[in-house]
Prior knowledge:
By secondary structure, the protein is an alpha+beta fold. The chain has 5 domains: 5-244, Mu homology domain, subdomain B (Immunoglobulin-like, Sandwich), CATH 2.60.40.1170; 254-285 and 470-551, Sandwich (Immunoglobulin-like), CATH 2.60.40; 290-467, von Willebrand factor, type A domain (Rossmann fold, 3-Layer(aba) Sandwich), CATH 3.40.50.410; 558-688, no CATH class; 692-763, no CATH class. It is built from 12 helices and 41 strands. Strands 1, 2, 3, 4, 7, 9, 10 and 11 form an 8-stranded mixed sheet that branches. It has a 7-stranded mixed sheet with strand order 8-12-6-5-15-18-17, with no helix packed on it. Helix 2 (305-320) packs antiparallel against helix 3 (348-359), helix 8 packs antiparallel against helix 9 (586-599) and helix 8 packs antiparallel against helix 11 (649-662).
Amino acid sequence: MRHRTRSLIAGGALALASALPAPALAQDDRALVQTLLPQRRMVHPNISVQAYITKVDADISIHGRIATTSMAITVHNPGQRMAEAELILPVPDASAIRSFSLDGLGEEGSARLLPREEATRIYREIVRRMIDPGLLEFAGYGLIKSSVFPVPPNGTQTFRLTYEQVLSGDGQRVDYVLPRSESLENSGVEWSLSVRLKQADGGSRLGAVYSPSHEIAVKPLGSDGFSVKVAPNAMLEPGSFRLSYILASDEKLPMTVMAYPDASVGDGTGGYFLLVVGAGTDIDRPKIKREVTIVIDRSGSMRGDKIEQAKNAALQIIEALDEGERFNLISYSDTIERFAPEAVEKNSKTVAQVREVINAIKAVGGTNIHDALLEALRPKPVEGSLPLVLFLTDGLATVGIVNERQIREAVASGNQHDRRIFTFGVGYDVNAPLLSALAQTTRAASTFVLPDEDVEVKVGQVFRKLAGPVLASPGLKVVPGIHDSSPELVDGWCRVAFLPDQMPRVLPDLFAGEQLVVLGKYTSQDTLTMYLIGDDGVQRSGSQVVFDPAKASIANSFVPRLWAQRKIASMIEQIRLSGDAASVKKELVGEIVRLSLKHGILTEYTAFLAAEEGQFARVGGLRDDNFGAMEAEASDVIQMRAVEDRDGRGAVSQSMNMKSMSGEGGEGGYARARQTYYDASMTEVVISTVQNIADRTLLRRQGRWVDARLLEHEAEAPDETIEFASDAYFELSERLAKENRQGLIAQRGDVYLLIDGRRVLVKNPS
């Protein structure tokens, strides 16, 4: 008897499943069914794996508000028989197929967009047949289905699909979404994802480009577009790829607000907001001239490649300055040597002079960090310039004042000219909390150069981001109502009751091609006008955006999680930078634990909360999991790590973790779905027992997923039990899909949820 294997491949999201057998096949010919997801592999227990996805290349072209998504999905058949497959691709509503093709098969193959009712039916049939809930996370999406195509034995087939859609958004903001799986398991599929943005002909110019879901690199393409690349490591982040961009309509900085409603904020009338401000790349916009002071550690420990790389980095920076900008060079060991008493203007003469000085630098002696910093801060900068310090060290203070607190206090009192101190810690033998504090308190950023990294490359990467300052010393001012014109501009920022818990508290400077992301809470339904005010190189200026809380949506579930990331990082840094055991206050630790549980954001200090059986991970740890016990455990960990580790791998790893969580330097950051951190040995730790699905957190507890809001009641019997693939099961999936929460039940294993105040146990196959 002839056997034929058929597979159903859902890309984009992407699920690969065997197709429901064709009616023409005899019963004995019908293929057993399997399902694969690109970040999670689920195999039917009665069959061996046949065709599976190996690679997905997604190329997105956006012109104005029209997005064209082209996907090349490669499928491998390791078997000895021909496999026949068909594509099932979840797509956003209102998508339209532009083309479908199969490599090497000419014009063969076709695909069609299914109506929502038929798409829902197919989803349900696959879920029932596969005995697996995985595809339910795509309930509510449209569906593209292809004709059957062959995959040769022990060979590959690549199908290419292109679809178009008109993008929606809010005001001048436009949003794009590529559906992908939220599963935490990695199936080994190789992803690549790139975007080309171009403004519509005769349309508004492009402003800020921001992804709340993944780390991206944005490069300008001339004056009317951008190239966006998703970082290779970021493709490990599960969930849909989201991208937002702003169409700027005037000469002001483009701004937009996204909000999430939360009944626990503002007596049920508030929520969380995310403000994105773009600097753009307009060459006509005023640019603030920079005054750069480069401070190089020339102590004996810098001998060899490190000092040569540092010298090359210094010369690279000076040569990259624009004509008319100013610079100075300071090198230090036991003593302090400076190129000039104060910064000099860049020209051919001064560059030649400083090159001779740099070439003559030799690494010898101790490390006088205190005096080197004060010498860099002392001179008065040229009026109208943005004074920057690039401070590099590879060791601890060994000469002069060496106490960390005294150095920080001296810098705080000595920085009379508001210089930004960008710090670079080379290797592990640095005081990481000190370098982090110097940067954070001066609107700058810290960078750590690991032993296998190049100093010159890392310093150059940071300096390139400091090109073309657009707005210095920005602050946020909020006034009630809608206003078309700017109010009276004031120095500093205005703290108002409408927007508590602003993150970051002190806003970094805004540079060309970058964006600024501000998060916080709102406490009422009143419409507000938000102003970003700062120095633009000529005068105090402001840009504004209207924030209407009525437009808040649970689809923006990334907003509170991103806020919580920053809030937790801020509180840990408060404790860490003090270096004092007495600073580990119960109320601060309690808030860290509460936010970690509510928003599903676990750090090295709270990772014990993810223990599978409700027991703490430390040997001899506590056996119960009441809140007081959680506080005590977190307090102990914070004491051992955040307070006591000041240098070495453990200290550097903490600084890198906090930098990632806080979006330091105005890069914005994204709401991470993967729970990862670097431990004390600089090894990446991945927590797989916690999932963030939409605006909910699920923890793996005693063999099932438990809604974080139910932890106090997880031992209690459910109010309702819903069996897998029952009518009630699919009714619940449709209801959750309307709330953008369908992924909650698309899990392997039982899920215990709090729905409308009732405890609901969803019985899923394990």
